[in-house]
Input
Amino acid sequence: MTDDARADRMELPRPDVTPAEAESILQSRYGLHGTITELGSQQDRNYRINTGDGSYVLKICHMAYDTLELEAQNAAIRYLTSKEGTPRVPRVMSSTDGQDIIAVTVREQTFKVRLLGYLEGEGLTHRKYLPKASVAALGALCARLAQALADFNHSGLDRSLQWDLRRAGPVAVQLLSAITDSAARDRIAKSMVLAVRRIQPLAPSLRVQPVHHDVTGDNVVCRIDAQGRPIPDGVIDFGDVIRGWLVGDLAVTCASLLHQADGDPFYILPAVKAYHEIYPLTDEELKALWPLIVARAVILVASSEQQISIDPENDYVRDNLELERQIFDTAMSVSFELMEAAIFDAVGADMTPVDMSGWHALLPEIDLANIAYLDLGVQSPHFAAGNWLNAEMDWRLLARAANEAGIAATRYGEYRLSRAVLRGARQPSTYALHTDICLPGGNSVAAPFSGRIDCKNHHLVLIGDGINLHLDGLDLSVEDGAEVEQGQIIGTVSGEASSLGGLRIQFCTVPALEPPLFAAPQEAAAWSVLCPSPAGLLGPGASAPEPETEELFSRRQAHLAKPQKNYYEVPPQIERGWKEHMFDVEGRAYLDMVNNVTILGHGHPRLAEAIGEQWLKLNTNSRFHYAALGEFCERLAALAPDGLDRVFLVNSGSEANDLAIRLAEAHTGARNMLCLLEAYHGWSVASDAVSTSIADNPQALATRPDWVHAITSPNTYRGEFRGPDSAGDYLTAMAPVLQSIDAGGQGLAGFIAESVYGNAGGIALPDGYLSEVYAQVRARGGVCIADEVQVGYGRLGHHFWGFEQQGVVPDIITIAKGMGNGHPLGAVITTQAIAGSLEKEGYFFSSSGGSPVSCVAGMTVLDVMVDEKLQDNARDVGDHLKSRLAALIDKHPIAGAVHGMGLYLGLEFVRDRTTLEPATQETAAICNRLLELGVIMQPTGDHLNVLKIKPPLCLTTESADFFADMLEKVLSEGW
Output
């Protein structure tokens, strides 16, 4: 095809064939009858027909498309079908007279028609978000397809196609005339010029082979994996198959991903890595990839603009145009050099580093060994109580270090805590690409290499051969524009010798680029190529050590006993907390919505100070006499209902529940315990025995000892009986269990249950349920244990204790978790009579439960809760958050119900609101997506389909709204 013919074809609208006419073609030429649906296309007219026995796609194109081209498409499909291990492809269907391609005349216009089998599966384009696994799978599919086509040959592959990136420049020129907005046209044209300039020198080295050239979200179909993620495994629409650049095929795929990238061009890198692992690219191809992506973005936008002008009723093109503009904007948001470095890093290819070995000293009057390097990272001892949130804190710390040491400097490559952003959906730019040195003014600064001086607004750039040195804080001693020799003095540090000055140092290999001072962690490797460390000039101390997250996790996995699990498959390395926020070693702040242990919030200075002071005084065991023990027990007893005034101090919830069961047995002389299904009470022998949650122990229902009697869980949302008035039905269901215990003649020791169904997500028990169960248990001589470990201690906001919501008073209360704000502390509160029963069996002792430090920790927590009104905050912020979560139910079918109160809430996800089929896979994927957006969340419940929302009680309304906003984003965009 000539360029003129291609240009003419580019201006064609879709064939004018109505659904009724398409139906007639299908009946008369293919013998098919069924339901007709139009499918989108840019220049073809496509219809899907569902016959009941199968589905097919009728493809109608203009006669301008050469039959040889269409034959090549069919041949490629058949070729792939004949090979093992290739992606799924549609079948080529013949007409009733045995033809693969037929000519059909409609209203005196003739078209070429083909029929393909409809390939079942979900596409990707409609999804606003794709997880990394899906992005990587698309790159892998593109590689497998290209690898399979490498040996395919057909004369119809050698054609002139507007999408062929080898002709991107001339095609763009032809298309740009359709764009009426001159500013947009000029920007698009300039972008193409920049891309072509980088492609041209590489073009002779780029491999040419048969390629699909349109492996995009529109043209793939997916299977859904076990985590609910779409994994592309089939390819449709071979309309662009050509003999073209191999790397151009990948460029088309990567460009298509940019509309789902949310403005982040690095989003494509998993696809590039996956492709390269299957079908390795050469260095020249890796260098050409991003310019080709830009070229593809230009062609997409320009082509759609032209097609809309020709075919204004084409909704398919109109809808795609906005996505293509996003692709173009994202493609042009970064430099070619940065993306080249990122691509090389993604595939593990090396780029030539800057050699500083022969350079002259930058600070010739300074002994580099005297520079004190300041730790400003996440684990720095200089940070506490949120002081890093002060915008001037880094400079203050640097000045203080310089005053003490004479010269101090910050470190290149350090993830700065001060750059962390609270409640941020994106990773902030925390990675330092520069070094600041605080030193006496007047120190000479020399040119480390020969170059030209460029100075604007006191910012100096020494422009060398392939490297620029950026300096701030310098009094220049040479003229702007001067050529300087290596070692020549170019200025002095600003300020008097008696005062401290500041010198900022940064290198950059890209001419005319004003580099950023910080990079986001996912961009750090690429930026560190463009802006290398000054360690070669200042010594190794100038670079901060890289985090060893993966190595540390491997060591953890190698030595930590396997039953001890971790959150997330690839967990962030969390090393600091502050209030309701946690920070990883890269300076990413996460909103902690799951940590009910730290009831006051993380890093509370008052608690740290109190515990530190007590450690310096005394820490021993409770058999010694010291003031804190009696004071703390007195305060706990005062919080409990009248009559519950005896306290046992322990170190965990498991120990507390274990002791409570032992107390029940000692007091009653019986062994049988009544508990609820779907419950969790701990991991000690006794507390595990009454834990029936199959999420925590898949064998729970089959391994309970014979003294444990589990009754139907009163789950008012998905249980056997539903609604707040279901207490009577659940009590009736309990009757046979009690009758069996009675018949055994061994008596009943007690009943243990969470007062609010915490392990199921904070579900309130049906009205009156506990009062009746307690009555029946007590009638049999048993005692009633309220497990308040998760739900009590002010977390519910409206009540201090969970049992208050049911209007009952237990015989034993167990507490732990938040009462120590992370310090190992638990307690059992009971009556004098029950406590005395244990003494008949001997004395009780817990090594650390009632230690001086533990008691001080517990009292400080109570003081802070009162002083900071945390229970009131749990009520007010919790009610607000619950209303935000409830609003999601009206918009998103997967959101089934909101449970709980205060800051113990649960959002339950279901696949069907009638059957209540649990959305287990989806819930796990939602938690993973929330982590990407800066929120820590985990599932709970027997089906692991409930978000367990139990943050520190200091949670602010702003943070609650951020959580709700991010959850809304996930449910709207996907996971």
